[in-house]
Amino acid sequence: MSDIIERVAWPNLTVAEDLKKLRAAVPLTHCITNIVATNFTANILLAIGASPAMVVAAEEAGDFASVAQGLLINVGTITRYDREAMLIAAESAHKAKTPWVLDPVAAGPLAYRTEIVYELIKFKPNVIRGNASEIIAVAGATGNAKGPDSTAGSDEALPYAKELALKTGSVVAVSGETDYITDGEKIAAVPGGHILMTKTTGTGCALGAVIAAFLAVAETDFQAAVNGSVTYAETGLRAAKEARGSGSFAVRFLDHLSLIGKEY
Amino acid sequence: MSDIIERVAWPNLTVAEDLKKLRAAVPLTHCITNIVATNFTANILLAIGASPAMVVAAEEAGDFASVAQGLLINVGTITRYDREAMLIAAESAHKAKTPWVLDPVAAGPLAYRTEIVYELIKFKPNVIRGNASEIIAVAGATGNAKGPDSTAGSDEALPYAKELALKTGSVVAVSGETDYITDGEKIAAVPGGHILMTKTTGTGCALGAVIAAFLAVAETDFQAAVNGSVTYAETGLRAAKEARGSGSFAVRFLDHLSLIGKEY
Amino acid sequence: MSDIIERVAWPNLTVAEDLKKLRAAVPLTHCITNIVATNFTANILLAIGASPAMVVAAEEAGDFASVAQGLLINVGTITRYDREAMLIAAESAHKAKTPWVLDPVAAGPLAYRTEIVYELIKFKPNVIRGNASEIIAVAGATGNAKGPDSTAGSDEALPYAKELALKTGSVVAVSGETDYITDGEKIAAVPGGHILMTKTTGTGCALGAVIAAFLAVAETDFQAAVNGSVTYAETGLRAAKEARGSGSFAVRFLDHLSLIGKEY
C-alpha cells in the first residue's frame, strides 16, 4: 500500500489563520541554537511576529524553558557547555509541557553531537526538523553527508522520516526541494521554496524556531510544522523574485515574512 | 514638586557636535555583549564612526578594558564563563577610569543574571541602559517581564530610573516609545524612533555601545546618553521611511547612521 | 636589489578559472572563527560557492579538520575553550594535509592570543592573512595597534610579510589599500577594494575563509591567496558603486560575490 501524501501550499486557510493567531499571541520562543544562526533566527522570529529569547546558560535555560511557549534546540555548533544547557532545557520543557523542536544539524558524520541528539530525543521533542541527510542519520541509517549540507534528496528521506516519527512519537519535518512533514501516518508535502534559501546561512535553522513558535498556537504539532514550511516556502518564492543574490535575498525574506498573510 | 523634563530631539547642535567629535576621535569601544547582537553592534559602531573591539576572553578583557576609550557590558546571553570576563573588565574599567555602560538585559525574571548585574553595578557603570521592565527590575521592584522584551512603558519606569540613578550614581537611560535619560536630577525625554527598531534584534543592545563610544567625547555622561538616544531616534525615523519590513529597515538603519550629521 | 612586484587585478584569467573550479568543487570549508564574523563568513562562503561548516567544539574539530577541504582558524574572540579546539584542529589539518589559513586578529597588543598564534604557527598554516599591524606583530616587531583595526599601511608591512613567509614557509597575505601576497620570494600586489570594506565587520575575517576555499582548487597556496584578494577587491568595487552606506554595502557585496566571474 502506498502512502497518501497531501500537498499543502500557500494560500491555505489553516496556515493563514494560525499565522494570525501567532501574531496575536506573540509566543515567547526560547532558542538554544548555533552561533552562526542566532542573530538571523531572532530576526526571523521578530519578523513573523514572535518574541525570541536566546537564553543559553545552563543556570538559566531550565527555568526559562518552563515558562516559554515554545523551545528550539539546535545542535549546530554544540560544545560541552552547550550540551549541559540543552539537556537541562529539554528536560525542563518536557516536564513543563513546553512544546519543543529539535534540529539535529550535521548528525551522522559527527559522532559527538549524534550521541547528544539521542540523549535529547529522550525528552520527547514535539518536532524533529532536519535536512534529508540528518533525518536519515538520526533514523539510524548511514548517511554519507560530510557537513551541514545534505547530500540526499528529501524524497529519499521520507521512509526514514516515517520510521523516526513512529519510533519517537515526534512529528518529523524534512526540508528540501519539497518539504515533507509526517507523524508516521499522515504525510504532508510542501512544494515551493527557492534555491537561494540554501545560500543564506541559518535559513533552515530559523525554520525550526518558526515551528517552535507555531507550536504555541496550532491545533496539532503536525499542523505547526506544516504552517512553518508553507509560510517559509511562499516567503522564499516572494523574496527570490526581488533578489539579485543571497545578500538581497535575506533582506527580502525578512521583509516578506513580516508581510505574508496580512492580505487575509 | 513635579519633575522638569527637557525634550531633546534632532536637530540638536550639541548632539551634532559630539557626533563630529566622535568621528574625529574614532573611539576604541570595547564590547562584551551577547551572541545575538555581537555582529550588529560592531557594524553599528563602524557606521557611526567608532572602532569596535569585541574582546571577550577572561584572559584579555581586563587589560583591554583599561586601554579602551569606552566599554559596554551587556548580559544578554551571559554564561558562567562570560561572567568571569565581565567582572574582570568592569573592575579594570573602574580602576583605569574607562567610562562604561551596563545593559542589564532581561534582569528581573532571570535570577542568575540579576545577581551578576548587582555584582557589576559595584564597579560604577557611568550609564545603565535598559528597557522599562529591566530598569524597574534593577531598581528593585518586581517587574513582570518574561523575557528580553519590555512589558512596561518607559513612562512607568521613569520614577524607578531616578531612584536607581540616585542610588548608584550612574546615569540611567530607559529606552521606549519615548527614551528617558536621568542622572537622578535632570531628566531628558527623547521622542522619535520607530516600532521597527523593536523588530530588529540587537538594536537596543547596540545603543549601549553607541553610548559607550559617546562617553569618550561628551562633556558629561548624561550628554553621552542623550547623544546616543537622539542620534538613534532620528536614524530610526529616516530608515523607517525607506523600509518595507525589518530586513530592509536594518540595512537602511546602518546606512543612515553613517550619514546622519554630515549635513552639518 | 629591489623586489619585483607583480600587479594582479580583475579581470584575470587564472583567478576566473579557479573561481569556476571552486564553484564546481563546492569545497567543504571548515571555519573556527570569531563570534562577530561567524554568520557573515558562512554567507560569504555560500555566496562564492563553497560549503561552510562552523565546527567549533574540541570534541569535533579534529576529526572534521581532517575531512574538510580547507580550514580557517581566526583568533578574533578566542577564549581558553576555543584555544583547545583550534590547536586540535590545526594539528589535525597538518597531519591530514588539509590546507589551512591562520588569521591572527589583533595579535601584538594582546599577549594571550599572540602566544596562541605562535603555538598555531607550529602546525604550518598554508597562508597567514592579516592586516598590516597584525603581520608586523606576528613577524616579531612591535606594532602599535590598539585593537583589531590596523594603524599601519600595508606598504609598511611588506618587508615583515616577506620575513614571516621565509621564517614560517607560509604564504603571507597583508590586507590594506593595496593587498600584498608573498611567499618570501614572489610578491603580488592587488589594488582595488573600497574603504567601505573596512566599515563592514568581518569582511577581512571572511577573506581568510575564501582563501581557505581556494586552497582546495588552486595550483599553489600563493595563487589561492591571490585569487581571494582579487575576487574580493573587484567585488568591493562593484558593491560600493551601488551602496549608500555600510548596510547596503554588505548586501551588495554578497550579491556581487555570487555573480562575479559568471560572465566568463
Summarize the structure.
Three copies of one chain form a homotrimer. Chain A has 264 residues and is of the alpha/beta class.
Name the strands of the widest sheet of chain A in spatial order: 1-9-8-7-6-5-4-2-3
Order of helices and strands of chain A: EHEHEHEHEHEHHEEEHHH
What's the main sheet of chain A like?
9 strands, mixed
- CATH homologous superfamily descriptor of chain A: Ribokinase
Helicity of chain A, in percent? 40-55%
How many H/I helical runs of chain A? Answer: 10
CATH topology of chain A: UDP-N-acetylmuramoyl-L-alanine:D-glutamate ligase
Find the biggest chain interface: B-C, 34 and 36 residues
CATH architecture of chain A: 3-Layer(aba) Sandwich
Question: What is the straight-line distance between the termini of chain A?
Answer: 39 Å
Spans of chain A with pLDDT under 50 lasting ≥5 residues? none
The number of distinct structural domains of chain A comes to: 1
Could you tell me the number of beta strands of chain A?
9
Q: What gross morphology of chain A would you assign?
A: globular
Measured by DSSP, the beta-strand proportion of chain A falls in 5-15%
Which assembly state applies to the chains in this document? homotrimer
What would you report as the Rg of chain A, rounded to the nearest angstrom?
17 Å
> What class do helices, strands and sheet pairing of chain A give?
alpha/beta
Query: What does the average pLDDT of chain A come to?
Result: 95
Q: In CATH's first tier, which class of chain A applies?
A: Alpha Beta
